[in-house]
Amino acid sequence: MLDKTYGPKAIEKKHYDAWEQGSLFSCDKASDANPYTIVIPPPNVTGSLHMGHALNNTLQDILIRYKRKKGFDALWQPGTDHAGIATQMVVERQMEAENLTRYDLGRDKFIERVWKWKSESGGSITSQLRRLGASCDWSRERFTMDEGLSAAVRRVFVKLYNQGLIYRDKRLVNWDPKLKTAISDLEVEQREIIGEMWYFKYPVEGDSSIYVTVGTTRPETMLGDTAVAVHPNDSRYKHLVGKNLVLPIVDRVIPIVADEYADPEKGTGAVKITPAHDFNDFEVGRRNNLKLINVLNQDAHMNDNVPEHLRGLDRYECRVLVIREMESLGLLDKIEENPMTIPYGDRSGVVIEPWLMDQWFVDAQRLAGPAITAVEQGKTVFIPNQWENTYYEWMRNIQPWCISRQIWWGHQIPAWFGPDGEIFVAETEEAAIAAAFETYGKHVVLGRDPDVLDTWFSSALWPFSTLGWPENTTELDRYYKTDVLVTGFDIIFFWVARMMMMGIHFMDGEVPFHTVYIHALVRDEKGQKMSKSKGNVIDPIELIEKYGADALRFTLTALAAQGRDVRLSEKRVEGYRNFCTKLWNASRFCELNGCLPSNDFNPSGVDNALNRWIIGKTVEAEQAVSGAIDAFRFNEAANTVYKFTWGIFCDWYLELAKPVLQGEQDSLKSETQATAGWVLDQILHLLHPIMPFITEELWKQIACNRACSLITADWPNLKNELIDPQANAELDWVIRLITQVRAIRNEMNIPAKVEIPLMLKDANDLARNCIVPYTLQIKRLARIKSIELLEGNVPKGSLQDVLDEATIILPVADVIDIGTEEKRLEREILKMQAEVERFNKKLSNEKFISNAPEFVVQLEREKLNEAKIACSRLGQAKERLLQAR
RNA sequence: AGUCGCGUGGUGUAGUUGGUUAUCACGUCUGCUUUACACGCAGAAGAGCGCGAGUUCGAAUCUCGCCGUGACUACCA
């Protein structure tokens, strides 16, 4: 016997453990079934579950559970990535407490310590995903630093290097002076601030009475200026091109060059060029053969390339001194307020410096070509489609991808340097040594590049490295390409783009997934992005504790409409927790009334119209839910099953079935019991992908002799033939009758307890045929004493209303106030007259009749007719009322 | 600056190819201990879909402009 309320805590862990231990999440590579594969976008090993994860993984789980129940060999490939910088920071912070730095330990010991941290406290997100109910195949869990995945990284690096797609170059990179490593463009966060623009005057060489004024937001970089550029057609400066300026403070002579980069509209039209500290200036420098002077060292203090009195200063201290010195030299022209965006490192939170360094780069532009074509040709489809634009936009403007990082935790670059700087790239040290031997003809000592690869380099391989590549595994053969990648739009560039490039390149042109489903961001109820600094983050685990995982999952699903953000409020979660309780109690009612699923129940063999009706409604619900999930319309799936369960099954079917269920034991009763049990079973199937825990629990409880679990039980496959139009018409009429009587009673303040007679006048065949079979139901649900067809006069003081052709008559002479009733009828008549007018107007429009499709015109005619009948019946009702006065 | 979204009852929203009485939930109001459920039941009020124009027999839905709002990308001398 079920408890009165649903308690998620007691059962969630139980079922999850049973599923996992029973290997019910596992794929079966030997199966005959078609595979259906999703690779999880690997969360950081340092991460913990936030709402974005909760949504992302709920949607993946819905797809996987649905497909699994549909008979596919479902594989949800889980794992985590090693999050190079983040993980290293976590461990270094831990060591800070012991007053240790990684340099104290040395590289090997430090790496050992990171692994220790990982085994003790890493990957807690995977247990949080279990709390959420994610049915990943944990037996296949992978980590980007696993041996197999590391081998994949080495193979890819070597291949790309040999193909000329990875190269070493001295370029400007985004340098994080706190973490002392390069980071990628995507790890740079642009923050808007109101800053200042300083205008400096640079005297012309040989005539210090003439100046060229340039603006800068980073005065300290002027120490590295090697030119000033003006537009070739700028008449203000034309005569100065070719002349030189004397760089103040430094006293370096620098040329004035003509370059189209200088925009006469901006600032003074003259722009200082610092090729070693600005991405645009770097290009100008290349074009004009300018010197590159690096003025910063790796922690953003001034280096020895600046005048002695400024050396060693922090960049911002130096800035102040430069401004002061320029001012005292009389060379500070003016200062303006300047709104601008400043690059910050998303991990370190400090201002990023463009810095000139030797780094490894991937020629992303060449890899992007096929990845763009694949989407253009529809080999990979984005849902919603508009995100393809974002993808194209980025892919078509892609920059060289800097993949080396000056940290220790990660895949060390498989490149060795000979004594003369010659590079040997190989998968193993032995191979590098062998190659060196060949080059030099003797044994030499090689030094390995100390840098590691960007974490995303290994994540990009995830769709095939997790399946065993570079080995030729059956899994790779069977599950690649995968079916769908589910992710938020904020990381289209991180995941989608890079996985596409690498997948196509290394898997013989085959894309990593045929569909990319992009879901929204989870925001708070006011539409604000959740962030720790705003303090508006909602912890999914807390919600699970409070309302259960199913309620949280259902909420996220119901709110996950395509192309719109998810605004989450706790109220909604509470509401869906109530839905869990509703389902629980409906099941409890079924159990109490012997409505148990039976194996030999055949829905097409059912006689009773009520039962045939609910079976038909179940078919409709199943088809709608399946269609919605197939189309990634998750909110639609959730709402459909919600309305069916609560609004139809509970509110109408069970209520209408009560008289039968509480009556004598007969064949109708047993048919009804079996039908109710069957419908409940179908509901559990339909809800299971969204709410796995409560449905599994109920599935087990209402039929404890069942061998299989709901998670792997077959998804319903219901045929259209089960929909019975006659039963639909009857029940539709009965429901409308009851609803209408209830509304009149309520409006006329007839106490709920009072049972009144009901008469029908001018009833059509449908109504006449329904009265008898549904007498018990109508009496019970509308609180009616007796029902009869009225042939003669309407009793004095009756309430009247119209249902189709029939007039509903409720004789309640002693209770009714004629004035109130008259007003009520007036209102209804007015409403109906307005309807009639509307339809009349439409139908008397020649153009409408001739242009609109026939069925639309026909429909309008029918509506007009119905409204007319209602109008006249209501008019008669009013007349009778007034006569009775 | 460019690109892409969004603007529907008090709040949050649905609305697939133009024809619906504009959906649902929360909230509000009224009445109910109806033997599954007050995390419940029954009823009600409340919007004509940001503004303007256009296309059309017909527009919340298509087109254009405007206003507001958000995200992303780029730039910032």
Task: Describe what this molecule looks like in 3D.
The chain contains 29 helices and 29 strands. By secondary structure, it is α/β, with parallel strands linked by helices. It folds into 6 domains: 244 residues, HUPs (Rossmann fold); 174 residues, Valyl/Leucyl/Isoleucyl-tRNA synthetase, editing domain (Isoleucyl-tRNA Synthetase, domain 2, Alpha-Beta Complex), CATH 3.90.740; 26 residues, no CATH class; 182 residues, Orthogonal Bundle (Isoleucyl-tRNA Synthetase, Domain 1), CATH 1.10.730; 91 residues, 2-Layer Sandwich (hypothetical protein PF0899 fold); 69 residues, Helix Hairpins, CATH 1.10.287.380. Strands 6-5-14-16 form a 4-stranded antiparallel β-sheet. The protein has a 4-stranded mixed β-sheet with strand order 10-11-9-12, covered by helices on one side. The chain has a 4-stranded mixed β-sheet with strand order 27-26-29-28, sandwiched between helices. Strand 22, helix 16 and strand 23 form a beta-alpha-beta unit. Helix 1 packs across helix 23, helix 18 packs across helix 21 and helix 20 crosses helix 24. The longest helix has 30 residues. The chain is elongated. The relative contact order is 0.09. The model has no long low-confidence stretch (mean pLDDT 89).
Distance between the termini: 57 Å
Q: Please, what is the CATH homologous superfamily of the largest domain? A: HUPs
Q: Give the strand content.
A: 15-25%
CATH topology of the largest domain: Rossmann fold
Strand order, main sheet: write it out: 6-5-14-16
Radius of gyration: 37 Å
